[in-house]
Amino acid sequence: MGPQAGLDLAEKLIRLTQTTRDQDHIPFILFSLPASVPDRTDFLLGNQDINPAHAIAGQFEEMAAMGVTIAAMACNTAHAGPIFDLVLELLRGKGIRLRILHMVQETIAHIRAAYPQIRQVGVLGTKGTHRSRLYDLALEGAGLEVVIPDPGVLENNIHATLYSPAFGIKACSSPVSEEASYRVRSAIRHLHDKGAGAVILGCTELPLAMKDSQVDGIPVIDPAVIIAERLISETCPDKLALSD
Amino acid sequence: MGPQAGLDLAEKLIRLTQTTRDQDHIPFILFSLPASVPDRTDFLLGNQDINPAHAIAGQFEEMAAMGVTIAAMACNTAHAGPIFDLVLELLRGKGIRLRILHMVQETIAHIRAAYPQIRQVGVLGTKGTHRSRLYDLALEGAGLEVVIPDPGVLENNIHATLYSPAFGIKACSSPVSEEASYRVRSAIRHLHDKGAGAVILGCTELPLAMKDSQVDGIPVIDPAVIIAERLISETCPDKLALSD
Fold first, then answer.
1. What angle do CA A207, A38, A85 make, to 5 degrees?
2. Which of A7, A28, A170 has the CB atom closest to B22's CB atom?
3. Which residues of A fall within a CB distance of 8 Å from B171?
């Protein structure tokens, strides 16, 4: 999907693998073919008709043909039901056996296990993620209450932080602008003020602008870290390093 | 090869691509299958018999089958003649059409173009790189004089910096240890003292410990930056950002 997000997941996969030699690192293949996958948010918002699931399933098919056994997508929005469910259906229809981790479900399972006392969870994501209620539905299903940003915060602190040609993460990520980091941090405080006990960075680009694992004492959850840990624990559990 | 080096090249490819949208980024596939490629240095030093060229050619074959048209290896040592030449021969033998950029040749072409006044060029690389005279032969062929580290510096400032389980880059790269950075910087000063007008970081892991483009005024050349720029200029020249 976004090339930065794929790179970020690969970096976490390597960093969280405990090893002293190149050869001991977990083998992986990173597909970074952004022009081939229609914008997930645009599809969910109805701005374009082509379901990105077709392109995504095609890439998974190629991976499976190369011997890949477990895979993940470095894009929260692609886990919305209308996209993710069709991906699975297309692969099943072709008889392709490839285990695909679900970033949202894994993230919520992690929160329940690591912070059992938390009842209200904040979510920061793209407009498409919020519109699809991707995290909301999954959190509610797990008996947790969702805290979402007010519309102005969503527009100015998240959408602009991702897409602004001047300071947005998608345009300017090495390094991410201070403006982007400031806006994400403000949005986390906003969700805290609304009652969130933890905040999920529900768009893979947001962790690029927010490296800290907490803000003002509330945990900030990066789903890419969770999914990297799961990729390791499901393939080489003895190599999983303790997260910092 | 080393997973960090592959990630580093991918990061440079993305960073040096000028674009404002995900979809405009150059499509790429990163193979990070370190256990499948025997250690290049071990082979060149005669410590093991299997030429890594066979595994490398197999991976290039898979890439070509997926539609890849141009490729590079994030490993200087793999460009030594005994490995690189066999890779090309194996691919030719199978009729595979894939353009593979030569990191060493591209780096030297860059130095000649960017610093025409420089006659002596320092090289820091693995023992295998030095033993194979990879950069030496290519630099001499280009009419340049090679400056290599003294044996003690090679052992303590380069080999140890790469392979030490305590502070080496291969074991400890996120972040790289201060000890590793200090030793690389010292080695650059050592080559400067010996007359080098520029220094090539001739092992893909060294730039992880040395981010500056110069030390005490002498240019420090990262072949991964050169190769990332070439991958862009050969595929989407209008998207090549100016290097910083």
1. 80
2. A170
3. 19-21
pLDDT in tens, B206-240: 988 988 899 999 999 999 999 999 999 999 999 99
What chain B residue is nearest to A32 in terms of C-alpha separation?
B28
Tokens for B176, please give them: 């790289």
Q: pLDDT per residue over B81-96, tens digit each?
A: 999 999 999 999 999 9
Question: Does pLDDT of A160 surpass 90?
Answer: yes
- Cα dihedral: B37, B43, B45, B49 (round 10): 150
The pTM (predicted TM-score) of the whole model is 0.89
pLDDT (tens digit per residue) in B6-16: 999 999 999 99
Measure CB to CB from residue A27 to each of B4, B15, B32 and give the nearest one.
Answer: B32
Is residue B170 within 8 Å of B93, Cβ to Cβ? no
CA closest to A63 among chain B residues = B66
Please give the Cα distance from B240 to B6 (Å, whole number): 20
Give yes or no for a contact between A219 and A198, defined as CB atoms under 8 angstroms apart.
yes
Cβ-Cβ contacts under 8 Å for B187 (sequence gap 6 or more): B124, B149, B153, B157, B158
Q: Are B204 and B125 in contact (CB under 8 A)?
A: no
Q: If you search the block for the tokens 């692609």, which residue do you land on?
A: A78
H-run or E-run covering B54: helix B53-65
Is the CB of B165 inside 8 Å of chain A's CB atoms?
Answer: yes
CA atoms of B25 and B99, how far apart (whole Å): 20
Q: Is the distance from CB of A33 to CB of A52 less than 8 angstroms?
A: no
Q: Tell me which of B95 and B126 has the higher pLDDT.
A: B95
Q: Provide the pairing of β-strand B145-147 with B198-201.
A: unpaired
CA distance B8 to B11: 5
Sign of the Cα torsion B145, B229, B42, B57 reads negative
CB proximity list for A30: less than 8 A, separation 6 or greater: A6, A7, A10, B10, B29, B30, B32
For CA atoms B120, B126, B131, B133, the dihedral sign is negative
Query: How far apart are alpha carbons B36 and B1 in whole angstroms?
Result: 9
B29: which strand partners? A31
| Domains with residue ranges and CATH for chain A | 3-102+226-239 (3.40.50.1860), 103-222 (3.40.50.1860)
Backbone phi, psi, residue B102, to 5°: -100, 110
